[in-house]
Amino acid sequence: MSQRAIVTESRFARGLLIGSALAFLGFFLLLPLVAVFSEALKQGVGTFWDAVKEPDALASIRLTLLIAAISVPLNVVFGIAASWAITKYSFRGKSLLITLIDLPFSVSPVVSGLIFVLLFGAHGWLGPWLSAHDVKIIFAVPGIILATVFITFPFVARELIPLMMEQGKDDEEAAVSLGANGWQTFWHVTLPNIRWGLLYGVLLCNARAMGEFGAVSVVSGHIRGLTNTMPLHVEILYNEYDFVGAFAVASLLAVLALVTLVAKSVLEWRFDYHHGGAGH
Amino acid sequence: MINRRILLASVTLGLLVGLGACSKSDKSSGDATSIELTNVSYDPTRELYKAINDAFARKWKADTGQNVTFKMSHGGSGKQSRAIIDGLEADVATLGLAYDIDAIAEKGKLLPATWQASLPENSAPYTSTIVFLVRKGNPKAIKDWGDLVKPGIGVITPNPKTSGGARWNFLAAWAYGRKAGGSEAAAEQFVTKLFANVPVLDSGARGSTTTFAERGIGDVLITWENEAFLAEQELGKGKFEIVVPSISILAEPSVAVVTENAKKHGTEKVADAYLRFLYTPEAQTIIARNFYRPRDPQVAAQFKDKFPSLNLVTIDNDFGGWKKAQTYYFDDGGVFDRVTTKK
Fold this sequence. Notes:
The complex is a heterodimer. Chain A is mainly α. Chain A is 80% helix and 0% strand.
């Protein structure tokens, strides 16, 4: 058989493949997005803004951003540290560590939430000590942050481990043999090598941190204006028959997701520009 | 190495405590000018307490000069009770049934076991009952409990494990089965057939309403009378009809000050005043307007066209009180488990 025959399908097959891929995308990605925005704007922009400006909605937006702003940097540090340790050194218990990193992926978010209730709840292991010292974790912002950090922990590490494994430690060894100290090696050698993987991990981590429902729902207590994140607030509004409000907040969540995607594209473009297209 | 590990451990611990300290008593425990009250309530009371809170805030401001603000939390009654036991710091609990507050007293030790005696009318300032909501024109001709067990009827009711309303639903169905069949065994048979017709068990009453009204699942919703009226009002008049069965149960949603939490926040006085306010004619009128049956006889007379009178059994006379009913019907291994596994 000639090579041409292998790579070139019939016109009909090509059309069918492309068409079905586009139809699939349109149906499962574009249509829901359009639906969210059209429901939100159903009764005009005025009602939309009123729903967004409502104090409880604003509080939920602030809380969601705060949680992402705390948990994403924490997981960047944890993620880099974990993947650095796993790929650059060998030590006992390494495979156990890799398994542990996957734990948040493998347990249901509800169970993750309940773990924290068991640990920090009034009748949990640490509950009596915490209440004696007037420290509130569960049903308060710290509990929501802990649950979010737990849920989003694997994203950065899981992106970095295969990448750093593949890159090996040759570059770092060369840097060290030329007299670089640990920090210099990390900053000038390792970080530039992993920046795309890291960026992608941060993006996934951020998206999940802002969108997490299950675990956060268990530890939140659902107090309006205090411990409701945006996803929880959407559920509450929907349950109150306030469909415009629910979809208005939902569309804001969608906008936040789109903003992260755009930010990623802009960053990619800038880096490519300055580094002569070194990225991948 | 060991030093580093200690360092790491202490940094982690410090971080946790730091996070905790952020929210450490940032709740204004009431200075002279403002005070905050957390009301942890069950599902269908959202609209009711929105109106009550406004009225009480006005009255409290006039009486004391102090601004009171409310933090509300809503969910399935059993779930909310669990959350308070686990440390959700409610000043007042306004739940779907007395047992859920008993649980807070018993397992959480957050209020005295005799809480029910501290307010009039068994600490239930309003009552309701269980009715059916059907689709416009009642296409399946549902008139009474007996019609719910016919083949092909989809019945929507929440899960009695998590929802207070669902437990009232279950017991109302039981009361019908017992009356119609003349025995406990007949009642169990009836309820088993009923639950075989239930396609979805949501965790709270509001979830069930959404399932029935918004997602269009099922032919009949068993629900609180107030929830049925509200669904009719909010989701378009004429889309649904309320069917009042021949027999139902007197549902008494209970309220209580969670004394240990109130003491901690310094809100005992305002919390007590808030719950007592519910018994005033002003609040009773708001209650009736939000489709709950008022206790006040004068207000009740004023709204008597709205609430049809029907044959009502009570939890104390017909089921030996909540503690007994809870253990017998709803705890693990109880009648409900038997009924739902027997399909």
